[in-house]
Amino acid sequence: MLPTLLYGALTAFATGIPCAAEAATREPHIALILPLNSPSFSRHADAVRQGFVAAAKVAGQSAPPIRTYSVNEDTLDVLTVYELAIESGAQLVVGPLTRGGVAALAASNLVTVPTLALNSLEPRSPQPSRLYLFGLAVELEARQIARLAVDDGRRNAFIISDDTALSKRMRQAFLEEFARLGGTTLAEFSFGDDPISLNKLRHASDLDVADMVFLALDFVRARTVRPYLGNSLALYATSQVNAGRPSALAAHDLNLVRFVDMPWLLQPDHPAVMIYPRPQFGDAVDFDRLYALGIDAFRISIELLRQNHDPALDGVTGQIRLTREQQFVRELTAAQFVDGKTVILDGSR
After folding, report:
1. Pairwise CA distance, residues 334 & 347, whole Å
2. Listed residue (213, 159, 220, 158) closest to 193, CA to CA
3. Is-contact 261 282, C-beta < 8 A?
4. pTM of structure
5. Quick one: pLDDT band at residue 170, thresholds 50, 70, 90?
């Protein structure tokens, strides 16, 4: 851990890709390891980097030095650069960003300093004592939705999902949490935009046997099935149904759907959100989420450097706390589409 006095002395802010000369000079710093050299993830990684740097600038002179290390999608490259960062004096590492990179690092014996990985591990995967997890895992959102539904008095659910990996992860997480809380999943439906599939949903919604539907779907597919579900069933979904800046017509199509999302998107006037500059990502809402992830990753890093054993943050990605499993989890803001508008539900934030 970075000693308190040394942390206080680290007042210079620096960011950049280390060269051989820098690597030869050991300097205490935060190492930000991101796939900026990856054709598939470079833009995503840069959004995280922008958020991290923005948070450091807001912190001002209290921000420790930061070095950005670029990697590609090769897990060997990730491990090599991680070693380089440690040799260069990194007192804390933020990254990797990809699931593969996080898994490779967790399975190695390289984690000798506190490391905040920006993704999740598969259940029962090895996790070194100094490896912490923080990310935008949709499974945690699905579990929060299950709790929200049970708190609303829902006990009997239909689930609609598709064959994508993301949908399968949402479905499984909701299914497990809902059952743990005493709920029953009465039936599951595979998404289809053909008349037969849609009419099957309409018929099921008219049976009056379920009291809710969980939409393990993205915005486009949820918008397709919503008109066939009537208004008698309570409808729930994750942040995947929130396109960020949908037209009023699109929001009307999702009328009465309850969902969760980060304050960065739902509550721009919240004090914890307002202090940070907003980038211009256009309609690419996923980049906004990654930018917000970068902001909170910096704030968590500072708590780790301070050796705070019970950190709790009012973050731009949600209310953040640390679990016994060394995972930083987020409680998101609950909202609902109502008559073309997004309404924050009572009790959120």
Report:
1. 8
2. 220
3. no
4. 0.91
5. very high
